[in-house]
Amino acid sequence: MRVEVDPDLCIGCGTCVDLCPGVFEWSEEEEKAVATGSEVPEDLEDACQEAVESCPTEAIKAH
């Protein structure tokens, strides 16, 4: 599983960072969330999927 955060859609609510800090982190420079890597570790896939589904602007794309 791979995830990307669209910076144009992200409003910086931080839900993804709260739900899955192993995959998402806060970018102080952009004041938005970013994905920490390209491939989601298998043990974090459920938490990551919850973050994708919880994003209020659908800024996180999983593929």
TrEMBL record:
Domain of life per record: Bacteria
Single GO molecular function: electron transfer activity
Record-given protein name: Ferredoxin
Domain 4Fe-4S ferredoxin-type as annotated: residue spans: 1-29
PANTHER family: FERREDOXIN
Lineage summary: Bacteria, Bacillati, Bacillota, Clostridia, Thermoanaerobacterales
Species the sequence originates in: Thermodesulfitimonas autotrophica
Keyword Metal-binding: yes
Function: Ferredoxins are iron-sulfur proteins that transfer electrons in a wide variety of metabolic reactions.
Metal-binding as UniProt keyword: yes
Keywords annotated in UniProt: Electron transport, Iron, Iron-sulfur, Metal-binding, Transport
One matching Pfam family: Fer4_13
Database matches in InterPro entries: 3Fe4S_ferredoxin (IPR001080), 4Fe4S_Fe-S-bd (IPR017896), 4Fe4S_Fe_S_CS (IPR017900), Fe-S_cluster_ET (IPR051269)
